[in-house]
């Protein structure tokens, strides 16, 4: 049991550390209307400049692309009643199982970290099974959007002098 607790703690710490690193690297959301979607910031790139624009803009606007993807998925879930009911039930189960004190599974108490790991795995598998078309289509859409946006948006201010 101690081995399982230590492994669960290690996995939980690794995920938390990766999340904190990601947050630090993308902690700045670029202004939406003044910068990200400003029509005056778009221009047709020269052939040699296109790859550099894609590389720099994808890094610079990463958090904006992620928020756009999450917004697309949320709107898709809300607009389709079956997905809305399923994910509402999942939210209820998360709330219910995370609020139970002293939850036991096979006669052993389940720690909060293991509970989150089990619920997260179940949620991921259910989401992939029930909404894989929605997830794949939205990922494809955001990929195409991000590539077009990154190609035609001018270079970020910090890289134009290089």
Automatic annotation (TrEMBL):
The chain crosses the membrane at residues 70-97, 117-148. It comes from the Eukaryota. It is found in: Membrane. Its main location: membrane. It holds the Pfam family PRA1. The keyword Coiled coil does not apply. Belongs to the PRA1 family. PANTHER family: PRENYLATED RAB ACCEPTOR 1-RELATED, PRENYLATED RAB ACCEPTOR PROTEIN 1. This is PRA1 family protein. It comes from Stentor coeruleus.
């Amino acid at each position: 049991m101690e081995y399982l607790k230590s492994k669960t703690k290690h996995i939980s710490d690794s995920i938390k550390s990766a999340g904190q690193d990601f947050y630090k690297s993308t902690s700045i959301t670029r202004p939406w209307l003044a910068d990200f979607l400003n029509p005056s910031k778009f221009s047709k790139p020269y052939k040699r400049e296109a790859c550099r624009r894609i590389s720099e803009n994808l890094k610079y606007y990463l958090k904006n692309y992620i928020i756009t993807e999450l917004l697309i998925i949320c709107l898709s879930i809300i607009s389709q009643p079956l997905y809305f009911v399923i994910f509402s039930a999942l939210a209820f189960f998360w709330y219910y199982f995370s609020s139970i004190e002293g939850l036991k599974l096979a006669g052993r108490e389940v720690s909060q970290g293991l509970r989150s790991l089990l619920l997260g795995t179940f949620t991921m598998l259910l989401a992939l099974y029930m909404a894989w078309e929605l997830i794949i289509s939205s990922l494809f859409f955001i990929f195409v959007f991000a590539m077009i946006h990154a190609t035609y948006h001018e270079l970020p201010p910090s890289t134009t002098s290089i």
